[in-house]
Amino acid sequence: MAEHDLSKTIIPYLDRHLSFPLLAHLADTSLFPVKDVTAAQYELAKGTNMFDYAVNLFEQVYPDEEVPADFDVKRENAVSTHERLQQEAQAVLDVIENPDVAQALRQDKNQNLQYLKDNYNLTLDQITALYNFGQFQYSYGNYSGAADYLYHFRVLSTDNDLNTSAHWGKLASDILTGRWEVALEELNTLREAIDSRSPASVLASGTASEPALVQLHSRTWLAHWSLFVYFNHPQGRTLLLETFLSPTYLNTIQTSCPWILRYLATAAILSRKASALPASTSTPVSSRVRNAIREVVKVIQTEEYQYQDPVTAFLKELYIEFDFEAAQRELTLAEKVVGDDFFLGEFKDEFLDNARYLISEAYCRIHQKIDIADLSERLNLSRDEGEKWIVNLIRETRMGADAKIDLEKNVIEINRPPLPVYQTIIEKTRGLALRTQALGAAAARTGQQSGGVTKPEAAAPTVAVK
Fold first, then answer.
1. What's the pLDDT tens digit per position in 261-317?
2. 371 pairs with which residues across the strands?
3. Cβ distance 228 to 18 under 8 Å?
4. 3-state secondary structure of 403
5. Contact present, 362 and 319 (Cβ < 8 Å)
6. How many Å from the N-terminal Cα to the C-terminal Cα in the chain?
7. Helices then strands, each counted (H, E), the chain
8. Helix axes 236-244, 261-275, angle to 10 degrees
9. Which residue in 202, 293, 296, 212 sits closest to 254, CA to CA?
10. Strand 411-414's sheet: what is its strand order?
11. C-beta separation of 375 from 363 below 8 A
12. What are the tens digits of pLDDT across the range 371-422?
């Protein structure tokens, strides 16, 4: 289903090295002609220092042509550049890896620079050699080496622009080496830096004069890069929901990259069954994750005019239209889309299982007596498979408290006690105090940005529900 592939949409927001895994995946899935994918790989590779890889791709794309001589010239220049940068960086490493120096360094970067200058004649320009060599190593695919040099540079440097660039390079290197715990830490650090820095550019190459616009662009790029981490880290789906459902990043997605809704919706579906497990058997989750489906459905309904695919359409048909037959059709398409997606492919079976749970949950919510054969059909399962699946579902989740199976009649009977009035009020007003505080804080920030220094206002009133 090439029409639903997002690779061409996502790649412009990635570094060229991060794009290689996506293109390799496209070659494996055969969604596009292999020759076209190989040509795209070559166009990316020829802009790096991975000359052998680029030559190999050139020979595949142009089998009847000779390899350009430019590659040999570039290779010789790269070798000489590597030797020069390595010598410059090693001179700095010899100093900072000295045990006496490591013990003398403090948290204050300016104090550290002064100490290095006074005792070892090391200047900020010399320390920048760590950045230059790390960047060069990244360009020819030595990602672990690049991560080490960029880390050492960031510890010492006071250059904000280069530090930000080193942040992005370190994150990309950790992603490409598959160090997901380290990559998650780097991602969180970079996100905090982006969210806290408004006056200066937070993109390494940012030249925009409007800080808010630069910040929006940075968050857009970070949302795309974070997909590598969130769909490979064990707790990544939950962390994705926590991040992308926050007002800041939800606004970024709606403004700049609505296609990220596919991954937000998928994460919500993947987390739904786990959040419905009894408290004694599941890891505690936040209210944002627990109510993720509800929030995502609202966004899907709002953004339907500018983005829709089978994954978002499945939730729309199930929770907005309440059309179970249409939801079943969209789920069949969504299964294929998820299976072909670079980030989601390995979650295909888990996605399908959780989606069936959502259908069952919604169907049981509006019926008191359910024919198992009919529900199995809506889940795209045979009668025997459906019966086993439904029995396991009731046994494993909270549905077991309300649902009873009558095997003689082959039906499920749902008995729900009426919800007390006070509980209804609590559910309706849950989170009202927090939302009021957030609105008050947002209004205060807006006033300060538009009017300069403003008079202190009284705190926004809060509503406490007991």
1. 999 999 999 987 665 555 444 456 677 788 889 999 999 999 999 999 999 999 999
2. 411
3. yes
4. strand
5. yes
6. 51
7. 24, 3
8. 120
9. 296
10. 369-371, 411-414, 403-406
11. yes
12. 888 888 878 788 788 778 777 777 766 555 566 777 777 787 777 666 677 7
Tell me the CA distances in angstroms from 297 to 152, 227, 302, 364, one per residue in order: 44, 20, 9, 19
Q: How far apart are CA 199 and CA 400, in angstroms?
A: 54
Q: How many CB atoms lie within 10 A of CB 119?
A: 12
In this structure, the dihedral spanned by the alpha carbons of residues 250, 251, 253 and 254, taken in order and rounded to 10 degrees, is 120
Question: How many CB atoms are closer than 10 A to CB 145?
Answer: 16
**Single pTM value for the model:** 0.82
Enumerate the β-bridge partners of residue 405: 412
Residue 308 Cα distances to 220, 311, 315, angstroms? 19, 8, 11
Question: Position of tokens 């790649």?
Answer: 11
| Residue ranges of E strands in 374-462 | 403-406, 411-414
Closest CA to 262 of 161, 164, 343, 352: 343
Element (H, E) at 371: strand 369-371
The dihedral through the CA atoms of 317, 319, 325, 331 has a sign that is positive
From 350, 328, 329, 330, select the one nearest 339 (Cα to Cα).
350
